[in-house]
Design brief:
- By secondary structure, this protein is α/β, with parallel strands linked by helices.
- It has four helices and seven strands.
- 29% of the residues are buried.
Length: 169
């Protein structure tokens, strides 16, 4: 995929992110504040044979950059990532490739990305909604695969699970 150049001069770098105490620090030692959008679609679109909800290209990203964002939250479907869910045309390696291409586009534009395990399901169930907690059957394999793929990205953050609500609280 052809990647756009990094946009510079729009706030502190979003590369080399690390946690120090209760702050996010970049490669230059500067505290950064995440100004974000949620780019929904990847958590459910694979169930219907699609890869995303709307355009996920440079044109749409350029429009989002006008909002002065520095990070994008990307909710995912753990079972679509693992190829255990969704339409075959939009699951497994096809899904992984699409997610990676979008993360690459975002990071090439100087943005941080929060990858969020949003939908998952235990056993042979279909991940079609958010459940109380990540499932022990598939979440570890999902995060092992995601962490391996993005281990060298210094501006990708992992959100282990979106808004857990144990005991239906």
């Amino acid at each position: 995929a052809l990647l756009a150049p990094v946009i510079k001069g729009e706030g502190p770098s979003m590369f080399g992110l690390r946690i120090e105490g209760n702050k996010i620090i970049n490669k230059d030692g500067v505290t950064v504040r995440l100004l974000s959008i949620n780019r929904s679609g990847m958590e459910f679109s694979c169930l219907y044979g699609d890869l995303g909800d709307g355009p996920m290209d440079q044109t749409s990203l350029s429009a989002m950059r006008k909002w002065n964002i520095n990070h994008v939250r990307l909710p995912l479907n753990g079972l679509c990532w693992l190829g255990l869910n969704g339409k075959p045309s939009a699951s497994g390696s096809t899904y992984v490739t699409a997610v990676k291409a979008y993360v690459d586009l975002l990071t090439a534009n100087g943005l941080a990305v929060v990858i969020d395990l949003h939908w998952t399901a235990p056993g042979n169930q279909i991940a079609k909604e958010q459940i109380e907690m990540p499932d022990a059957d598939h979440a570890p394999a999902f995060w092992t695969s995601v962490a391996t793929m993005f281990q060298s990205y210094t501006n990708v953050i992992f959100d282990v699970y979106n808004e857990p609500f144990p005991f239906n609280n």
